[in-house]
Amino acid sequence: MSNLRLYGNAFAELELIKGLKFKSSIGFDAYNTKNTTWEPKVQRGHYRNLQATLTEGRNGGLNWIIENTLTYSGVFDDHRITALVGQTAQKNTTDQLSSTGKDFLNETIQVINGSKSSERTSTGTKGEYALASYLGRINYSYKDRYMISASLRRDGSSNFGTNNKWGVFPATSIGWNISEESFMQEVSFVNSLKVRGSWGQLGNDNIGSFGYYSTIRIGNNGDNYIFGIPQGQAVGASILRPGNPDLKWEASEQTNVGIDASFFRGKVTASVDYYVKTTKDMLVSLPVSYEAGFQSAPSINGGTVENKGFEFVLGYTGSVGDFSWNISGNLSTLDNKVKSLGVGLPITGASVTGYKSLPATYTEVGREIGYFKGYIVDGIYQTDSEIDPKFQPNAQAGDFKYRDINKDGILSDADKTYIGSPWPDIIYGGSIDVGYKDFDLNLSFSGVSGNEIFNANKINTYPMKYFGGSGIVNASSEILNRWTQGSGKNEIPKLMYNDANGNYGNSSTFFIEDGSYFRLRNITLGYTIPEALITKTKYFSYCRLYVSAQNLFTITNYSGFDPEINTSNSLKAGIDDGVYPIARTYMVGINLSF
Q1: How many CB atoms lie within 10 A of CB 207?
Q2: In sequence order, what are the residues at sequence separation of 6 or more whose Cβ sits closer than 8 angstroms to the Cβ of residue 63?
Q3: 407-411, 469-473, 524-528, 570-574: least confident range
Q4: Spatial distance between the Cα atoms of 7 and 31, rounded to a whole number of angstroms
């Protein structure tokens, strides 16, 4: 793999008159990446690759952004005003090309042309995204006691068609510095006390490019047709996904009230917030039936989701002699609920793809968005005599025993139920800064609690269902604890080639694990050489040496690589289907000033 990247930014600022400034900035990021993958012809143990394969890919792009703002700041007696108007524009372009060649006569010639001509394939795509924005903001305060702010954005995105390309998003906030009032002057232990409230809207256009256009496939064997005398094949076309010209911006509306305070000469600081965030006109892609005549449903604006909760921040700063510290922590709660679905019907979410595809998440009114739904596993059948052939006709000893939720004696989708949520109840974090003379130590940590993870890696690493059923080269060591005849084990089913009972083909509690974790994000130890010593070099005015480690350890009950599962798709949240874990990093460095 090789990567060439060039990026930079520049700005200029001009004061037109006193208090009035114009600023213009430009930034760009250009990149070009080459990936080469070579897999030789090999037969080793259970693994067999009968054709040497070479894949070469090129990926290039250019991202640029331009911003122009006009800012005015002025103070008139007890009145303070700051106003801003501006314009921004940005554009991202991508260009991708990939070629694959197979069946090499001479494997030392590792170029695409060295492969068999009939075994060569190429694919290529181009993409564009552009965003234009106009914005304005005004802040006003009176005697630094009463504050009000208002802003307005108008954004236009290339991801939407001409019908709804632009969205308008207002916001406003107010604040009251109670500690500046005369009746608070006698309260000596309170240094500052402020109450505030805000309301605003933000837009989201993260739907991908050209969703308002229909996607058409041309030249596939299923699309071509025969006609004429003599009969001949003509190139045909079919719609893969209809476009939606009425797509529009998703809007998040948030209301927030809070209190900020500091006590005991600023040594203790605290903030408390209560928020309600409502996301309207959500951008989603709905499931499609076979009768629709196309593979994928168009993206639509459908549904409303509400998030609400509390946020707490607490800090303490102090010192004794040469020893000083700054400790801070934060904690927030989350209550997620779907308030409505625009189409009125529940949404079956993302499918997990292994050797089978199975839906893992479900969205309906009154529940969390994208919760996990499936069968409840009540252990493993130890003998065939335990099995009710009417309820699970394909089950054998060693298979999962599913719970009959509706008590009708027949295993069906009606027995699938709520089995977990990807959304944590509590999110927390904090940092500790300690100093002693010229030494400094920093620790930062974070964690979540109350969420579940769908460990889809089990589909690929447990059943050993590859290479004609002869086994898999690498598998999870957990399968050593699988059920075997007479073992009495009740967690992992037996190994088999034909999974008729759907042990791995059905969403169930077998895949659900506790996603709570505590992670030490960073630890850094530094030493600053005393100024009197460093200035003797006559070259440096400051020198600090440090060592640090990132993601040094994580405390969790999750059996996968990493419990921190991030995704921008709320219908696929919490699904670990091979998410690359965050690396542990060690660094040694030096900071110098001349």
Answers
A1: 21
A2: 28, 29, 30, 90, 91, 92, 93
A3: 469-473
A4: 8
pLDDT confidence bin for 206, thresholds 50/70/90: confident
Q: Do the beta carbons of residue 484 and residue 494 sit within 8 Å? A: yes
Instruction: Give the sign of the dihedral formed by CA 100, CA 102, CA 107, CA 109.
Output: negative
Cβ neighbour number for residue 199 with a 10 Å cutoff: 15
Tens digits of residue pLDDT in 90-121: 999 999 999 999 999 888 889 999 999 999 99
Nearest to 453 by CA among 574, 273, 587: 574
Whole-angstrom Cα distance, residue 227 to residue 205?
Answer: 44
Q: Which of 497, 498, 480, 501 is nearest to 489 (CA)?
A: 480
- Is it the case that residue 470 has pLDDT exceeding 60? no
Q: What is the phi-psi region of residue 543: left when phi exceeds 0, alpha when psi lies from -120 to 50, beta otherwise?
A: beta
Q: What would the two tokens of residue 284 be? A: 């989603």
- Whose structure tokens read 């995704």? 567
Number of other CB atoms surrounding residue 377 within 10 Å? 21
117 Cβ contact list (under 8 Å, min separation 6): none
Distances (CA, A) of 452 to 204, 348, 374, 420, 516: 26, 18, 14, 6, 7
**Furthest-apart CA pair in the chain: how many Å?**
102
**Burial classification of residue 409, based on how many CB atoms lie within 10 Å of its CB (0-12 exposed, 13-18 middle, 19 or more buried):** exposed
Angle made by CA atoms 152, 154, 159, in degrees to the nearest 5: 145
Q: Are 302 and 364 contacting, i.e. CB atoms less than 8 angstroms apart?
A: no
d(CA 173, CA 357): 48
- C-alpha–C-alpha distance, residues 329 and 6, integer Å: 38
What tokens does 296 get?
Answer: 């994928």
E-strand ranges in 178-267 read 190-204, 215-218, 225-227, 232-234, 237-241, 250-263
Comparing 211 with 83, the larger pLDDT belongs to 83
Helix (H) or strand (E) holding 461: helix 457-461
Instruction: Compute the distance between CA of residue 357 and CA of residue 454 in angstroms, rounded to an integer.
Output: 14
Residue 328 pairs in a beta bridge with 315, 431
Sequence-ordered list of residues with C-beta below 8 angstroms from that of 583, at least 6 positions apart, any chain: 550, 551
Contact (CB, 8 A) for 402 and 412: no
Number of H-type helices and E-type strands within the chain = 2, 37
Most confident of 59-68, 461-470, 500-509: 59-68
Which strand (E) or helix (H) includes residue 533? helix 531-534
Q: Which residues, at least 6 apart from 158, have a Cβ–Cβ distance to it below 8 Å?
A: 128, 129, 130, 131, 165, 209
pLDDT category, 551, cuts 50, 70, 90?
very high
Instruction: Determine the pLDDT at residue 288.
Output: 64
Res. 465 pLDDT band, cuts 50 70 90: low
pLDDT digits (tens, 9 = 90+) for 297-343: 778 888 899 999 999 999 999 999 899 999 999 999 999 999 888 76
What is the token pair recorded at 443? 């620790």
Under a CB-based contact definition with an 8 Å cutoff, are residues 100 and 44 in contact? no
